[in-house]
């Protein structure tokens, strides 16, 4: 059912990502120092601006569930579509696991600060994932309306903290003159910081996943996506500014909940309460959006028989991909139970990065096969092919950055996708009905 507007698209994209301002981004400080993390924040912000521009054009034209997966099957073919579908599912499921970890760790920290015995975070992990899965099971409109409310509230807490530290009075609360240092590991550290700089924005491409449920894709998808990336650029810069002025970079680079820790350093109980709530809301909104996006990508692959057709079912009453929602719950819980936040984040980043690497090729092929004027586009992004070229160069640089710190994980992930690609080509492809996939009423591609 087409029930969503631009506000819901914004809530889906920003809701998934905003948790990156509350945790995870700060690991880039450990790689390149505070100034290196700021450079990574803005350079990766450019990467995601290119992602948002490209996604806005292609998805407003290919308005189908599955987002980049739907784009790939229409433009590049089945093997690429299969891989892109897996990139999406893995990136969102790992991000969901990281969100659940943060909720569990945050409640454990609160218990310790209030004098209670240490809590086991695992029951909270199961509880938050189960509750949000049930919400997604019941319907997308209610799910994303809730996401809008709690995402907006979480963003407001960042603004409140920024105002609360009196940035207009140098040295009153913020100590940038004392805490900011030169690049501790040189420019190679800055490049290494690109890996976790992604965490500021990872998931904004999730706005594409609800394309079939948006009332006016040509308006809502570009508007929701582009305003979403603007929101995140502002939030990322404010977050860095406050945290780098309150916490030493050596601590900031390994903190679990840096914005909450920054609020504690102010000595204000009010700010601490606001940021506790903000962190909790951001993690909840992100996990909520991840369940929505991962299940729709998995559902789309089941509907097209890239995965067993059983996953392509829609609930007869709630009209949600309920089987895909339920199937992905234990996978997210099992990764969250590892407790290895940086490892889980890295797996999510790598899957997302592989998806971004596909996008420039997809965009160039899209413009060549269906030039401007040959089909109706909901939105045409400017300066083509510059955003595609910039995106590809930044993706290659970020792969190198990931290799510097997590080379084994990078190689293991690449091997995994090679193996599953062979499985698809040699076994699963025979079940795919290619003629049923092309749902767009387009003319034949140019040159065919």
From TrEMBL:
Identify the Pfam families for this entry. AA_permease
What is the protein name stated in its UniProt record? Putative permease transmembrane protein
Q: Where is this chain's protein located in or outside the cell?
A: Membrane
Q: Read off the lineage from the record.
A: Bacteria, Pseudomonadati, Pseudomonadota, Alphaproteobacteria, Rhodobacterales
- Record carries keyword Nucleus: no
Task: From the record, give the transmembrane residue ranges.
Answer: 7-27, 33-54, 75-95, 124-141, 148-165, 185-202, 223-249, 269-291, 325-341, 347-366, 386-404, 410-426
Query: Where primarily located?
Result: membrane
GO annotation (BP), single: transmembrane transport
What does the record say about its membrane topology?
Multi-pass membrane protein
Q: Which InterPro entries match?
A: AA-permease/SLC12A_dom (IPR004841), APC_superfamily (IPR050367)
- What GO CC terms are in its UniProt record? membrane
**Family matches, as Gene3D superfamilies:** Amino acid/polyamine transporter I
Assigned keywords, A-Z = Membrane, Transmembrane, Transmembrane helix
Q: Where is the Amino acid permease/ SLC12A domain?
A: 15-404
């Amino acid at each position: 059912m087409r029930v969503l507007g631009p506000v819901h698209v914004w809530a889906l994209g920003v809701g998934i990502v905003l948790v990156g301002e509350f945790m995870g981004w700060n690991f880039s400080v450990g790689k390149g120092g505070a100034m290196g993390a700021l450079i990574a924040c803005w350079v990766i912000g450019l990467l995601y601006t290119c992602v948002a521009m490209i996604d806005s054009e292609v998805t407003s034209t290919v308005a189908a569930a599955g987002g980049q997966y739907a784009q790939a099957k229409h433009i590049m073919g089945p093997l690429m579509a299969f891989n892109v579908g897996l990139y999406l599912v893995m990136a969102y499921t790992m991000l969901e696991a990281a969100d659940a970890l943060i909720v569990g760790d945050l409640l454990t920290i609160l218990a310790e600060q209030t004098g209670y015995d240490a809590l086991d975070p695992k029951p909270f992990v199961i509880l938050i994932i189960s509750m949000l899965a049930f919400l997604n099971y019941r319907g997308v409109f209610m799910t994303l309306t809730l996401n809008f409310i709690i995402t907006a509230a979480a963003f407001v807490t960042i603004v409140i903290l920024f105002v609360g530290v009196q940035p207009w009075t140098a040295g009153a609360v913020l100590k940038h003159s004392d805490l900011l240092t030169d690049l501790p590991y040189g420019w190679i550290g800055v490049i290494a910081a690109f890996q976790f700089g992604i965490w500021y924005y990872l998931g904004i491409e999730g706005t594409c996943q609800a394309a079939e449920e948006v009332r006016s894709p040509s308006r809502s998808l570009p508007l929701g996506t582009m305003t979403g990336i603007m929101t995140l650029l502002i939030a990322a810069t404010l977050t860095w500014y406050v945290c780098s002025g309150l916490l030493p970079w050596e601590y900031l680079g390994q903190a679990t909940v840096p914005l909450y820790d920054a609020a504690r350093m102010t000595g204000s109980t009010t700010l601490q309460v606001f940021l506790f709530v903000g962190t909790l809301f951001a993690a909840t909104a992100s996990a909520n959006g991840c369940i929505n996006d991962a299940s729709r990508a998995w559902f789309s692959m089941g509907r097209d028989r890239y995965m067993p057709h059983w996953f392509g079912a829609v609930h007869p009453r709630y009209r949600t991909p309920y089987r895909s929602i339920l199937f992905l719950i234990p996978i997210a819980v099992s990764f969250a139970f590892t407790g290895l936040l940086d490892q889980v984040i890295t797996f999510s980043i790598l899957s997302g990065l592989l998806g971004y690497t596909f996008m420039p090729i997809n965009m160039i092929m899209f413009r060549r096969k269906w030039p401007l004027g040959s089909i109706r586009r909901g939105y045409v992004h400017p300066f083509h092919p510059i955003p595609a070229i910039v995106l590809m160069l930044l993706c290659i640089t970020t792969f190198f950055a990931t290799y510097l710190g997590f080379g084994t994980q990078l190689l293991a992930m690449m091997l995994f996708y090679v193996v599953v690609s062979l499985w698809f080509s040699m076994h699963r492809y025979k079940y795919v009905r290619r003629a049923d996939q092309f749902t767009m009423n387009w003319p034949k591609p140019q040159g065919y």
